Amino acid sequence: MVVRRAVKQVAVAAGALAIAAAVTLGTSPAAQATPAGQTGAAASAKATTKPTAKPKPQPDTMTIVGGELPEAGIKVLQAEDPKLFRMLMEEVGWMAAATPQASAPKKDKLGPKYTVQVLIKEKATQLYELYPLATGGPRAHRPAAQPSGKKTDGWFYGRLSMSESLRLSGVPLKAKPDVVNGGIGGGIGENLKADDDPAASANKFIGEMRRLFLLNGAVLVIILTGLAGMAFLIRRRI
Fold first, then answer.
1. Nearest to 104 by CA among 156, 29, 47
2. In this structure, are residues 147 and 126 in contact, taking their beta carbons and an 8 Å threshold?
């Protein structure tokens, strides 16, 4: 009797301990924080995932002042004329982090100066001085005082296309279409939105030459046929 009562008390105590453990585990913070069906490792990985970084803003506006331009200068918007904007950026963008290539030329050898400013959402970020008519070829200057912060003052040899890029933007310079891909020229400030495809132009030229050869061949066949007919008639009469 005593043994049976002891066994019953042990069973009751064990059941009470099991219930207490279940309640404790069910109400623990870790169990509540982990969603149903998701392991602890997956929840931890999700918690440590960093948000995607926003893309860095890109230049969208360029201004040109100086020389014989009006005081207001010229403004080129990337949204309105992307090809012209890209041409101007190719003239100055590479100087942002470039090492100076030359010493400062004599002022009387530089010719007219055109100041080009690069902006992002109406905020100036880069500033350059271009000399397209400098003696010995175009020159470019990167002033030390830059809108985005002080840099090393430096002089560079400009691209041969500098004069034409500025002219196409509206600067009154003499045309040099031979230094621009596609032979662009004639007039000031042309619209460059439509890209010319060199391959399409070549195919068109080949097609025209083929038609010319076919036409010449047809004319030659007609002439030979006529001569053969005349020779046959003359031979019959003889």
1. 156
2. yes
Which residue, 117, 119, 114, is CA-closest to 139? 114
> pLDDT of 30-44, one tens digit each?
444 445 555 555 555
Q: How many residues does the chain have?
A: 238
Give yes or no for a contact between 128 and 140, defined as CB atoms under 8 angstroms apart.
yes
Q: Are 105 and 113 in contact (CB under 8 A)?
A: no
Q: Are 234 and 226 in contact (CB under 8 A)?
A: no
User: Which two three-digit tokens encode residue 207?
Assistant: 């097609």
Return left, alpha or beta for 33; rule: phi > 0 is left, psi -120 to 50 is alpha, else beta: alpha
Q: Which among 72, 84, 115 has a CA at the least distance from the CA of 188? A: 84
- Whole-structure pTM over 0.70, yes or no? no
Selection from 58, 122, 130, 49 nearest residue 88 by Cα: 130
Q: 111-124 pLDDT, tens per residue?
A: 999 999 999 999 99
* Count of other CB atoms within 10 angstroms of residue 52: 6
182 neighbors 166 (Cβ within 8 angstroms): no
pLDDT of residue 192: 47
What's the pLDDT band for 90 if we cut at 50, 70, 90?
very high
Residue whose token pair is 């490792």 = 41
Q: How far does the chain reach from its first CA to its final CA, in angstroms?
A: 155
How far apart are alpha carbons 73 and 69 in whole angstroms?
6
DSSP H helices in 103-197: 162-169
